[in-house]
Fold:
Amino acid sequence: MIPPGRLRRLADKAVPSRESIETNRWLKPVAGRVMHSALWRFTRRSVPRGVALGMLTGILVPMGQIPASAVLALPLRANIPAAAATTFLTNPFTTPPLWVAAYWLGSWMLGPRLSAGVLAGDTPGWLDWLLHRGGPALLTGLVTLAVVLAILGYFASALLWRWWIVRKRRRRLQLRRAAHPAAIVPRSR
Structure:
């Protein structure tokens, strides 16, 4: 496991500075809106939104997932770094199994109607399969997986956030008790 301090230093190096974003010629027209502090602050509400948004855009948007997640984070008030980082769920190693699972899920969801086909053989075999069997199954499966994984990501990150805060509070209380054992009186409930 990477120590938190080291992880923080890696993130600080990887994330562009506020000044570089504000002076970027492509972002100048929307820099005021994009640089709103609520979109960059890690809070218990914005991070799960960012994770869910990153999952959706990472799976459903074929190219340019990070810009898409950043643009969609604006109206949703989602954390932009969390949304951008979560788009890396889809990468060259995870995309093929994800697409196979999506095709399998879509074929299962569409059922026997899919295997019957829609049009009779006026198109070549592979094109007929792509348009009438493979494409609809893959698209159905991708949308379903994206929505399910976004919901799971939202709740998992919210629970992880809660666990981290509780752990941090307990550690702080233990340090206080160790420093001043007689000064801290437990609260009555």
Q: What stands out?
A: Residues 115-119 have pLDDT under 50 and may be disordered. The chain has one domain: 17-175. Residues 17-175 form one domain. The two ends are 37 Å apart (CA to CA).
